[in-house]
Amino acid sequence: METISKLPEKKAVIGTREIIKAIATGKVKEVIVANNCPQDLVNKLGNTQVHIFEGNERELATKLGKPFPVAMAGFE
Hints:
Blueprint: E1 2-4, E2 13-14, H1 16-25, E3 30-34, H2 39-43, E4 49-53, H3 57-64, E5 72-75
Parallel strand pairs: 1-4, 3-4
Antiparallel strand pairs: 2-5, 3-5
């Protein structure tokens, strides 16, 4: 897994359940997780391409424009 600081400019899927459903349907090809995301959530992603965001959940949320912590975001 590589560490990144910039997010893709695509629409993000947020929420573990929604990301897992989108992976199953092929809508999500890569997932970006906050550096403090619990490992058990990352393990649920299977063999999907995962990148680690260099910030925590609050910083990832700020980048996504969300007022709540975001542990992970899925992208096409």
